[in-house]
Amino acid sequence: MPDELTPQAASDQSEAxxxxxDGGAPAIEPILTVPHEPGAPKPDPILEVDGxxxxxxxxxxxxxxxxxVQRGVTTALIGPNGAGKTTxxxxxxxxxxxxxxxxxxxxxxxTNPSADALARNGMIRTFQLxxxxxxxxxxxxxxxxxxxxxxERLWAAPFPSRWRSQEEANTERAEALxxxxxxxxxxxxxxxxxSGGQRKLLEVARALMADPVLIMLDEPMAxxxxxxxxxxxxxxxxxxYEGLSVVFIEHAMDVVTGISDWVVVLAQGQVIAExxxxxxxxxxxxxxAYLGRRRAGAER
Length: 300
Known about the structure:
Elements (H helix, E strand, L loop, with lengths): L9 H8 L10 H4 L13 E12 L2 E12 L3 E5 L6 H8 L7 E6 L2 E2 L5 H6 L2 E3 L12 H6 L16 H21 L15 H14 L4 E5 L7 H16 L3 E5 L3 H7 L2 E6 L2 E6 L1 H4 L3 H8 L1 H7 L1
Helix pairs in contact: 1-9, 6-7, 11-12
């Protein structure tokens, strides 16, 4: 059986992923009452998707009838290779255009689905292949995420007195983020010298610099060594405790069961299952999607 569905202690891990009753994020308890079925309505969705589709030639890559993402929780998007997970991310975050459908973000209809407009409104996504600027320093990479920088405006750029205080505040915040993600010692090094795991941490730090309300992470653990993976899992969990919403794509089920509150399963572009991790990983339809009906039937 492939790694995606192997953890023996998945049920135990999913229980551990839930926050302790004395300090959990307030949005987690309501989602526990949501029906475990595709397209289930959520108590307070930050994303609502209807009739979203995208084809490439004759291949229907995304065909989502209805999907809601709960605010203030960690949602995992899983599925076999080619299921349409990254394409769905690209559509929702404005990096590709949908053929049909509409969606709303943070209570407002998305009428201009461009990546920059959505980012300004608080939807920030990262990529499976990191997008750090290798020839800029680590601190400068983080500073690029700061929104509404006056020094970038043509009318203000020639007058440092108009933007210096903002620049100092941004630098202070960027340094705090580097400290938080254990990158402070690399502050003035070129981003190209970072390891793959450190670049993943750098991307999350830069995303937080943009004041997001929703962070979408595309395979954040890919290529990350186990020690840094544990650190990254901790940071992702911490984001929810701070009031953010997190959606991430992941193949490793130990990560999914370890940090997610809700799981959405995509296969052939369609949502085939939803629910808490312990429920989804034992769903027959999910097992069929990953392993194929014949082998899944033999194992049952």
